[in-house]
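WARN no homologs supplied; continuing
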Amino acid sequence: QLLSGVITLQGFHAPLAGQTLATPGIAWWFPPLGAGAIPIGGPAAEVERAVRTLKRGGCPARAQPGQVVSAAPASALMMPVIAALERAGWSFDRLRSTDNLALGCAASQQCAAIVAGRAGRSPPLTARLLQPWTVSLLLRLAPLVMPFDLERFFEAHFTKVGDQTRLMLQTYVDEGAARGLPTDRVAALHSALSLGADPTSLTADPAPTP
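OK structure emitted
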């Protein structure tokens, strides 16, 4: 009775840095307009039961019976950009104004091709749309929708799981090399993280890998 799903909410220990709350605790937020509904896949009867249970608890969810729901394609696009943001000192302004964003987007496209290769598919259209100007636009619009400081959220959460970020990037590099796919941008981003935050430029890229 195995079900699969993808986490759509943002949750964190509140208050975040620079935030004040009368009562500290755990805060969470689901994206609006149905985007926050957690997709649940698997055997139809179990999926429907799980979705009903989640909804009763106040968690939006939607059934995808007979499917395996995977976060791998979305993670492949997101994690390199998060790594680039860390490299930029968790600042959207510095991310937009340095080479970090271009490197993160290029690495995301390589990671998307690697994940798509697992299923013998082409990378999704969203990978080609992930360009520095589109990410920059999204980063300007997101704070207008989200009721918390998104920079501080990313910093708090992804600093906590920083080892996971680095492991994921290294896994993409290893898998891409095994599949004969380009990994030079992913490898450059992984190496850059080991140098710490650099809000000015990324000039010390390692030699490209196959």
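The two ends are 41 Å apart (CA to CA).
OK
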